[in-house]
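Example (one chain per record):
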Amino acid sequence: MTTATDSGSAGAPGILEIPRRTVGGRLRSVGSGLRGTLQQAGEMAELLATVAYSAVRHPRGYWGDVRDQLFEVVKLCWFPMAVACVAFGFGAPGLQAGNLFILFGIPERLGSFFVMASVREFAPWINAMVVAGVVGTAMTADLGARRIREEIDAMEVLGIDPVRALILPRVIAVTIMTGLMDLVALTFGVFGGYLAAMQLGAGSAAFEQNFFSNATTIDLWGSVLKTTLFGLIIGVVCCYKGFRAGGGPIGVGRAVNQAVVISFAAIWSFNFVFTTILLGLYPEIQVYR
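Predicted structure:
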């Protein structure tokens, strides 16, 4: 006679088989997602190589469009970047670090701290975040709309290279202007720290003296170079997502969201690598004077 247990084990999968199938499905899903991520990273690198080759191979004919894009970046980004840098400099590293320095009786050392806080870290970071959130989303939406309206396909039919006509000027403009606006972000970030020092009762002369005693050209060019590369990352990622957008307006919106998230993640990862290399090559900039 067949028992209930025997019939159940013969007609239904074993208890241990269900978790195994679930784990297998999850592993396949993770593997598929990883392959997609690596494929997109490779296509972004290919787009960067195509843009660089086109810019160097034929260095004329696109600078008028670059000039227009530079103006758009400045027009859209300078005010939110200035407000964000002043507010952040006054709040987080300004008041918080200033209160900590007061506990040790050295509030005037806030100027030294802002070389690290503003020049090396948060001013480039805020600058890149504003550019990615304002200009990067606009680029992705514009290219995505052109893609779903089949304008890019029409350009290819007419023999016009859409990468050179649409992507190259945007990538160059965002790269250049992000680096240049870093100087403005540094100024407003340090100004926010100066306001925090005045709020905490530290002397303005002491803040300025400690800041300029510790600031070096290495800090300045490192900050500008890092932010310029931030702009290159933003330009390539956002142009890629807009250029490859599909699925109608919903697909364009999805591409905009993905472009911002990928840009932020890439900037944070690159910032870690760049800062580690910079401090390893120039360890003397870590010493406060």
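Caption: The two ends are 90 Å apart (CA to CA).
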